[in-house]
Design goal:
Shape: elongated
Distance between the termini: 103 Å
Oligomer: single chain
Number of domains: 3
Strand content: 15-25%
Helix content: 25-40%
CATH superfamily of the largest domain: DD-peptidase/beta-lactamase superfamily
Radius of gyration: 35 Å
CATH class of the largest domain: Alpha Beta
Length: 699
Amino acid sequence: MLFLIVFVLFSVLIFRLGFVQIVYGDDYKREIERTEEITVNNPVPRGKMFDSTGKIIVDNIPQNAITYTNNGASQEEMLDTAEKLAELIEKDTEKVTERDEKDYWIMINPDRADEKVTEKEKQNIREDEEADYDKDVYQLTLDRITEEELDELTEDDLEVLAIYREFSSGYAFTPQVVKNDGVTAKEFALVSENLDYLPGVDTTTDWDRYYAFDNTLKSVLGSVSSSEEGIPKEMLDYYLARDYSRNDRVGKSYLEYQYEEVLHGQKAKVKNVTDKGGTILETVTISEGQRGKDLVLSVDMDLQLATEKIIEEELRAAKQTGGTSLLDRAYVVLMDPYSGEILTMAGRRLVKDEETGRTRMTDDALGNITTTYNAGSVVKGATILTGYKEGVIQPGTVINDQPLKIAGTPVKKSWKTFGPISDLYALRVSSNVYMFETAIRIGGGTYRYNKSLPLDPKGFDTIRESFAQFGLGVRTGIDLPNEQTGFKGMSQLPGFMLDLVIGQYDTYSNMQLVQYVSTIANGGNRMEPHVVKEIREPLLENEELGPIVEEISPKVLNKLDMDASWIERVKEGFRQVAQEQQGTALSFFGDKEYDPAGKTGTAEAFYDGPLRSNYDEPPEVMNISYVGYAPSDNPEVAIAVMVPWAYEGGSGHKANMIIAERVMDEYFELKEERAKEESKKPEDLTKQEVIDVNKEEDE
């Protein structure tokens, strides 16, 4: 009977095995052989940035790196690899948090961790319908780990934890940087020699962003996130939707951010073939990828550096010769008035070093678009043209410049009483009263000595809408984020309309000022300013520019709705400011061969800078400015200079004019020097020979 039972059981088993093999054999075989294909995108170096003459401004420098790719390893396997790797490299533990330490303590002390929550507590959590059992038990365990228990972790443990932390933060099948800062040659060699014992670990060449001109334009160029930081949280959803990985380095600010899609490049695509257990069977390269495209900026670094040096020298000099203690910054923008290309965007600021107590000069080029000030009389060209447009004055209209006494208000006057003057003369000597009378007429009022002056509040809108055509009080459209438009005065009392037309009510940025004067210089086209001139394909040769992908074309934002002869009239007024007797810029530009034109500005304002908390009431200060262009008949460069909080009361230094004069001189001297160098080059040189000559000259 026993033999019979065994025989029957074996017969059933054999029958069942045969049935499975014959009927389902092919299905199970296909299941065993089933593979999965996972495509992984590997990052590539970012594009570079060059100045308008071909000098590298932003580059990538190679650096040794150690990476880890999770190919389906378990937690225990990752921890074992981390322990082995910790014996070969030194890993910084500063970023290890207390939560990381608690998680690690639980991993290496599972039994002790399990005792942190009693069986009764676990049962209560199971019975709670709203509770998440695993999450709640784990949280209780974390809360009950004591500081004494965490102190059990040694420095070696923390180093292993720091490495494991990097392992676990990456995506599956995607390389995660474990260390790329300060990897020594010895570490790189040791890890390379032991890769067979370190599953998932690899040695490779990474890159870091390098800025060739330290503390120059750095604020405009922007920054890139680190490999540890990856995509900033506030931008995560945006970039994940565009096929980025969480640990990708991205531009965080300004040019690096604005042109992220251009600079980021085309990722290398790798296909990993795995079995159903996750083991990689084969790796196939789909595409090699390509580093990001290069940006050629319109900025001339030679001119930029020279301008920054001038600002620094004159800012320090002004502090010693009549400048208020509040004076701490100055700004300069040079722009091609016909193309909108920004040739120089410079700003310097004095800041106090908290450690040494000394002041140091820092880059504040961004202040040209992110800060706004009362600009003063530089806006009077827009005022005259607005008066023409509204029909309240005509070219040649004469107005008596004398102090105005409006009932209940202080006397409003020019810096000097000029008597009957024309529009051109008003620009040349910077008459306030001529502008006041223009505003009164726009507002539909009539001035009578010591009488009230009712004006139509719509005059504010009329003036501001007209000013906006020049770029004042609106976005200039520059290819940089976070541009500020300025502040509009809220009160509509008549006296403030008079302040508005002399630049002492609304605030403007220095970029708006250069766009405004460029609009007049080129005959009425408001050009969109831009810092990027070209986008080019990357080449393997580090110092060469590739083919042009896109050339940023000049863009007209709007054309002044004004007669061309009116604009020419104001241009003549600006020329007289710089070149005729009594012109307010004559002493600085009267002897220049490059035929300058411009408008000076001084504005009474209230201090609103970083030291305002030191005062019960903001002190009154003077902002000084200048806008101009040259040559006056066929402008090739426009300039705007702003020196906020230059001095307090009365008259002070002329830092705005000294800076403007020196920068314009530098522009034309540099142009002449380059023309001479170009004429010396033999015409029969090949393109490559010319490049070699340039390199030798640079060296």
